[in-house]
Design a protein that fits this description.
The protein is an alpha+beta fold and 177 residues long. It has four helices and nine strands. The chain has a single domain, classed as Alpha-Beta Complex (Cyclic Phosphodiesterase, Chain: A).
Length: 177
């Protein structure tokens, strides 16, 4: 079974703007813009029966209206050993949708997510990038304009077992509203 996760797709025009931040960082493996997304709930490698349960229960969630998502800056995960460059995203609606999905997937027997939800769009994965290079990268990027789009659906993605970064396939889409 493929690796599964839920997320919000990034519209092409926003992806194009985010892709302008690619390059200029040694040790970075840049994510292709068509694979940009905001992960809501990582599900992982599961069997076919559990995948069917997840597919069904996600459709049973509370119907919520489409909502605005704002991307407002660049950041990194990893502290002194940076491992990811990302664009910050978020608002209360994203947090509410993620919390609901956490409750739903736990109902089908999946373990709780261990990591705190930090809504973001991964731009690059870093391998042996020096903290100084990362600091220089951020220093040369200047002002980051707020980017806003309307999330009209969330999707169930699959990916092949790899080091991450795609390609991702939409297995199911769940409209908002």
């Amino acid at each position: 079974m493929p690796r599964l996760f839920t997320g919000i797709e990034i519209p092409a025009e926003i992806g194009l703007q985010l892709s302008s931040y690619r390059g200029g960082l040694p040790g970075a493996r840049w994510i292709d813009p068509e694979n940009y997304h905001i992960t809501l709930r990582f599900i992982g490698d599961i069997d076919e029966r559990t995948a069917g349960d997840v597919f069904s229960i996600l459709g049973d969630g509370r119907r919520r209206d489409p909502f605005a998502v704002t991307i407002d800056g660049l950041d990194t995960f990893g502290g002194e050993r940076p491992r990811v460059v990302f664009a910050r995203a978020g608002n209360g609606d994203l947090n509410d949708l993620q919390s609901e999905q956490e409750r739903l997937v736990r109902r089908v027997g999946l373990p709780p997510e261990r990591r705190k939800f930090t809504p973001h769009v991964t731009l690059a994965r870093l391998r042996d990038a020096s903290p100084i290079d990362v600091a220089d990268y951020f220093a040369t990027r200047g002002h980051f304009p707020r980017l806003t789009f309307t999330a009209r659906r969330f999707v169930l993605f699959s990916s092949r077992d790899s080091v991450g970064g795609g390609p991702y396939v939409v297995e199911a889409a769940y409209p908002l509203g």
